[in-house]
Amino acid sequence: MEIITVRTTQNIDIDYEIGGLGERILAYMIDLGIFVALSIIGGILSVSLFNNGGGISVYFIVIGVMLLFYDLVCESLFNGQSLGKRIMKIRVISLDGTRPKFSQYLLRWLFRIIDFSLTSYLAGLLTIILTDNGQRIGDLVAGTAIIRTIPRSTMNNIIFHNVDDNYQPVFIQSTQLSDQDIALIHEVINNYLKTGNSVLVYNMADKIREHLSVSLPPNMNSMLFLQTIVKDYSHLTAQADAL
């Protein structure tokens, strides 16, 4: 299975398995199947409720519009997943380690015209097969990729990258933490990037501040605090190991 490594903003590499072509096709078929089912059920109900074809036409126009914008809306609202992608446990991520922006989802959606419509799916299939990260043209332009939702990185193999030697730590108290503590902070940050759940970030930041007896500097929020703690810990422990 091919692997993609994404470096997060807190200088941690996370390894993900690239979403396979088969999984992506199945996710697409699941999403398409939903609309086929809606069309059949809606068609039957429309025939029963309306005496003319006007109601049926309106219904299928609505279904067509929903199908057209389905991926864009779902990926934007549900952190890179449609229902099919959620069932197949794959999702869209940004290669810069942050949550994808709406502009990235929009670019992916717009380039469906080239990947799928104009080339009868040939361009999308070829680029997914030939590119290292399994990206179609829309992904290449948007800076995104499709990955399996469970990262391969575990608490035992997370790689903490050293920051610049001239870096000045903000919280020297971070050395009171353990590797397991830092790994847990990493998991909380990664969970936020996946789900947007900020409650865990606030709770973790409160616990760390209480444990280290520190307060937040001006203009530093809970997320930045956790990222800074990880960076300080990585820098200070690297310096200690070098002595």
Percent of residues in helices: 55-70%
Number of domains: 2
Kindly provide the radius of gyration, computed on alpha-carbon positions and rounded to a whole number of angstroms. Answer: 23 Å
**Termini distance?**
39 Å
What's the β-strand tally?
5
The whole-number mean of residue pLDDT values reads: 84
In N-to-C order, the SSE pattern is EEHHHEHHHHEEHHH
Regions with little confidence, pLDDT below 50 for 5+ residues = 155-159
Strand order of the largest sheet: 1-2-5
Number of helix segments?
A: 10
**Sheet with the most strands, sense and barrel status:** 3 strands, antiparallel
General form: elongated
Structural class: mainly alpha
Beta-strand portion reads 5-15%
Explained architecture:
- The chain folds into two domains: 146 residues, no CATH class; 84 residues, no CATH class.
- A hairpin with a 4-residue loop joins strand 1 and strand 2.
- About 2% of the residues have low confidence.
- The chain has ten helices and five strands.
- The longest helix has 29 residues.
- The chain has a three-stranded antiparallel sheet with strand order 1-2-5.
- The protein is mainly alpha-helical.
- Helix 1 packs antiparallel against helix 2, helix 2 crosses helix 4 and helix 8 packs antiparallel against helix 9.
- The two termini are 39 Å apart.
What are the SSEs and their pairings?
Layout: E1 3-7, E2 12-17, H1 21-49, H2 53-77, H3 83-88, E3 90-94, H4 102-110, H5 112-117, H6 122-130, H7 137-142, E4 144-148, E5 159-160, H8 179-195, H9 198-212, H10 222-242
Antiparallel strand pairs: 1-2, 2-5, 3-4
